[in-house]
Amino acid sequence: MREKILAVIEKNSRIDLRDLAALLGESEIAVANEIADMERENIICGYHTMINWENTGSEKVVAFIEVKVTPQRGMGFDKIAERLYQYSEVDSVYLMSGSFDFAVIIEGKTMREVAQFVSEKLSTINAVLSTATHFVLKKYKDHGTVMCQKSEDERMLITP
Amino acid sequence: MRNPLSNTIESIPPSGIRKFFDIVNEMKDAISLGVGEPDFDTPWHIRDEGIYSLEKGRTFYTSNSGIKELKIEICEYLKRRFDISYDYENEVMVTVGGSEAIDIALRAMLNPGDEVLIPQPSYVSYTPCTILAGGVPVPIRLEEKDQFRLTRQKLEEMITPKTKILILPFPNNPTGSVMEARDLIGIAKVVEEHDLFVISDEIYAELTYQGQHCTIAAFPGMKERTVLINGFSKSYAMTGWRLGYACAPDTILKQMLKIHQFAIMCAPTTSQYAAVEALKNGDEDVARMREAYDQRRRFLVKALRDMGFDCYEPQGAFYVFPNIKRFGMTSDEFALKLLEEEKVAVVPGTAFGDCGEGYLRISYAYSLQDLKRALERLERFVRRLEEKS
């Protein structure tokens, strides 16, 4: 049941418990308990809203930063990651294979704000060797959702 | 001026769905639960392959029976999914949807006066295609108490010396009924005893929700007597591509191919290349869509039962077929009133045969959100009916 619950709420976290139970053919109590367990076990880590900020008045800048580091004794990747993700400006942190070590995604109000954060906070962490900042110009698709798509049902209303 | 029309075609009444469709179309902002096609787009990798075939300039006729690659993939698919083997060179042809296959199978097999047994409620084309092929349609009335399955007894009752073909429309549109192996064994015996042939329309085979779809062609002695029809419309959400196929013994297939060759030439080339991709890499898409339909099926059945409908729980396709007899209206009256008062379009059961009287076909090829919106209106409607009575 867990995987089925997750598959549904991954796409629609606001679904009514009643509807979810009906879709899965389970009782509401069973589904509610399962969800509560998964929250406790940190399988479900949160319920967020996907917002297309471009369609609001507010300005937002997103940057993708490649970070190279030198792990040292007592300061492995996990420790360094912690130094990175503690900042509230940092949205996501991934340890990567390939030519750099961490991918860091930062959200700020202006490019200046982001640049300042990188030069003053990220770059100055001891283990950090270098950074390369890429600003996002436009977001097309996120979490499997195409941002600009307005889907209309083009089917004929009645067909045999 | 003489009557320009054929008596045969004039004798065929227009599709019941058509009538209703015209009324629905007049209505602005009607919500429909009346479609007979998936709400999903064709998976992108399949569309992409179609586009690619156009880019490469594959814009010519193919051989009459379809491209070799596709026929090979069809055979592998049937072996993999339903454990039945066909020879791609002589026993498979690609058609313009399952509908064409139904038509040409009947035309290839019927002599004037031959009777065709058509279990109903079922898809709208079997009866007119039988008449056009010179045959005599003989409906078999399926019943809710049998879960709308064809029983051995019902079949035997309707057989006469003139009976030649049995149509097996399972998983069934509109009832959602399926035939399991234990049901088919009995049917196969009767078919063999009476030397009949079967046209098995398995277009919804992939949309079977409890257990695995079972084809009658896989039973001993049945392959020689069966035209198996399937296609890409429902399983891969490819209705607009117009692509289906028929598998049959070479003696039958050769004659079907003759009609196809003169009437159609070949199925759309672009669609054929896209279909190769569907069969090669589409299993996951099929599973994903099946799971989505299955969830909505449970949701819809529960919602209808909570509303007070008697509702057989469908096992296949994407329709539920609730019983409305307790409201004291005909299917047509109910559907029309529902459309007028709440602007929800459903299909009256009678569109699928007289024995569909007292039922409605409600499709769940809709998003949960759309279903909920329509169900709210349906519930309001039902409450009003109950208050009056």
Based on the model shown, name its key terms:
heterodimer; A: 160 residues; alpha+beta; Alpha-Beta Plaits; 2 domains; 4-stranded antiparallel sheet; two-stranded antiparallel sheet; 5 helices; 6 strands; B: 389 residues; alpha/beta; Aspartate Aminotransferase, domain 1; Aspartate Aminotransferase, domain 2; 7-stranded mixed sheet; 3-stranded antiparallel sheet; 13 helices; 12 strands; globular
Structure description:
Chain A has helices at residues 2-11, 17-24, 28-40, 77-85, 111-122, and strands spanning 61-69, 90-95, 102-108, 128-135, 141-142, 145-146. By secondary structure, chain A is of the alpha+beta class. Chain A folds into two domains: 2-40; 53-137, Lrp/AsnC effector binding domain/regulation of amino acid metabolism (RAM) domain (Alpha-Beta Plaits, 2-Layer Sandwich), CATH 3.30.70.920. In chain A, a hairpin with a 6-residue loop joins strand 2 (90-95) and strand 3 (102-108). The termini of chain B are far apart. In chain B, the strands form three sheets. In chain B, strands 2-8-7-6-5-3-4 form a seven-stranded mixed β-sheet, sandwiched between helices. In chain B, strands 9-12-11 form a three-stranded antiparallel β-sheet. Chain B is globular and about 65 Å long. Helices cover 43% and strands 13% of the residues of chain B. Chain B folds into two domains: 7-41 and 284-388, Aspartate Aminotransferase, domain 1 (Alpha-Beta Complex), CATH 3.90.1150.10; 44-282, Aspartate Aminotransferase, domain 2 (3-Layer(aba) Sandwich), CATH 3.40.640.10. Classes of the chains: A alpha+beta (160), B alpha/beta (389). At the A-B interface, helix 1 and helix 2 of A face helix 2, helix 11 and helix 13 of B.
